[in-house]
Write a structure and sequence with these properties.
With 256 residues, this protein is mainly α. The chain is built from 13 helices and 4 strands. A 4-stranded antiparallel β-sheet has the order 1-2-4-3. The relative contact order is 0.10.
Amino acid sequence: MVEKLDTDIYFTPREAAKRLNLSLSTIKNYIYANKLKTLKTPGGHHRISKNELLAAMGEKAGLSPKIESPCVSMENYCAALVNVFKLLGPHGNSFIIHSRNVAEISHKLSKALGFKEEDVLYAKMAGLVHDIGHVAIDRRTLAKQEPLTLQEYELIKLHPSKGGELLNSVKDLKDIAIIVAQHHERMDGTGYPKGISEKDIKKIARVISIAEAYDAMVSEYSYKKSMPKEEAISELAQNKGLQFDGDMVEVFIQLI
């Protein structure tokens, strides 16, 4: 129900979404990101003024339909994709925690490196779904506690390609598909899946490579013990120019 407070017209988030042909989640994202100011009722419910809604959506007059921002769509898709790891059972929880950690580290490192705002977002989102290709790998192999056989290891190495293929099939995720596909490439060209090197590896993929390796070392998961922070830093430093971008490692060490 539309309410009239003071002299302005106010809408509930659901009404605002319907009138602008947007998803309710998009409206909520604007609210939670403080991009859309709201008035709260005594019961704690959000009410959005017509003028505030038009200003936030960049409209000058009238309530006209607006297409959801590709960045908002990408964030929604990535947040949903991470939950797919739950299909892997108890082992999937480790993937979810690791993915969120890598997203946060990638976000901080890309900002410290001076990346433009769009690339900072791409780094965070690609970090969040960098391991999504694991859902295409046999669950028994992923959950195995014993050392992997050569054949099993080769299957695991398919996950960057599988992840890239999955993301490339979704229009709003195409920009991060190649980043995910490259996150296990190495500066010296001995990585996978394509064995490319140095500047042929996307800069955001090089960021995620560092974030992924660091979290894998310092975090304790069901399948491994944690490594002291100092040892993990030493490991990164020893592999500058080999596995990791040396300049990025230097910035990362200062960051943490």
